[in-house]
Design brief:
mainly beta; Outer membrane phospholipase (ompla), Chain C; two-stranded antiparallel ribbon; 3% helix
Length: 303
């Protein structure tokens, strides 16, 4: 029989049974405006945003494994304008954790995180030159550290002192231009490429993340996701920020309204400005704070 320091005495009896928990949430927000003989003027428009969130959780004893898949895609069509993309996101997250004992709120954790997009991105109204594509960029984080969470499904803070970050720019034109922090192509005096641009950039740094989900009121749910990363070798002290806050207002079982804010800053991601000439060239500028705000009403289904 195990002693007082043995495994069986450190684990609650209910936790000795393997538990799988699979859940999905699918939401669709649609906004539409139509004007007919409206003397104040206006432009007809319609927009749609679809979001899919899947979670697979496994728990056995002191071992926990949590995986998430997040997909968002949005489009907008205004009168006399071509279809435009408003949101495009694919993210996969997987965290493995082990507790010292069943009473502890601390976990020794390892985390995998991957992000990219589905379709080309443009600096509208210019649609001739993509400024992003699938896997350009793509981001991969792999690291280990500690995680704190009293109710880890609703609140967690993760710190990794050693996280590997890879930035993928698999499009030739974007990698040659040095987009998203990769080394750009080497060219001669006539503009001929001597050495192709870097396709993959690897960094080693520290990562701090925080996630929580809470009810403000009976029909108002707040979800917060924040990530802070700093590379040890290149410009240590520059912090990459990814912070998203979403308010879900529940009207009934299926209808909900959403108000969200998403802030990003990455010193390696430069912005583009269009030069007013016949070729409509894009010139790379410095890094800036990126902000996206969303407000919509739609339907949501949990299963």
């Amino acid at each position: 029989m195990p002693n007082a320091n043995g495994y069986m005495l450190r684990v609650k009896a209910a936790d000795t049974i393997p538990k799988w928990d699979l859940k999905h949430r699918v939401g669709l927000d649609i906004n539409e405006v139509t004007f007919v003989n409206w003397n104040a003027g206006g432009s007809n428009s319609i927009s749609a945003l679809m979001g899919i969130r899947s979670e697979l959780n496994y728990k056995y004893g002191l071992f926990k494994w949590k995986s998430q898949a997040i997909v968002n895609y949005g489009i907008n069509k205004q009168q006399e304008q071509e279809l435009r993309k408003t949101s495009d996101e694919l993210e996969l997250i997987s965290t493995v954790g082990f507790q010292k004992d069943s009473e502890s709120n601390w976990f020794f954790s390892s985390r995998f995180n991957f992000k990219t997009q589905f379709t080309n991105g443009y600096n509208y109204p210019n649609r001739s030159t993509p400024i992003s594509r699938f896997m350009a960029p793509g981001y991969l984080f792999i690291g280990g550290g500690v995680e704190y969470g009293k109710n880890i499904d609703k609140f967690s803070t993760y710190f990794s002192p050693l996280t590997f970050k890879s930035t993928f720019v698999l499009d030739k034109d974007l990698s040659n231009a040095g987009s998203f922090g990769v080394r750009k192509a080497v060219v001669d005096s006539e503009g001929n490429i001597i050495k192709q641009g870097e396709r993959v950039r690897t960094e080693i740094g520290m990562l701090l993340t925080n996630e929580f989900e809470t009810k403000v009121f009976d029909n108002v749910l707040v979800r917060n996701r924040a990530s802070f990363y700093s590379d040890y070798i290149n410009s240590f002290g520059n912090i990459d920020v990814d912070w998203e806050v979403i308010f879900n207002f529940k009207v009934n079982q299926y209808v909900k309204a959403t108000l969200g804010s998403h802030v990003r800053y990455d010193n390696d991601v430069k912005t583009f400005a269009e030069v007013e000439n016949e070729e409509e060239e894009l010139v790379m500028e410095g890094a800036k704070i990126q902000w996206k705000q969303l407000l919509g009403i739609g339907v949501v289904v949990d299963f």
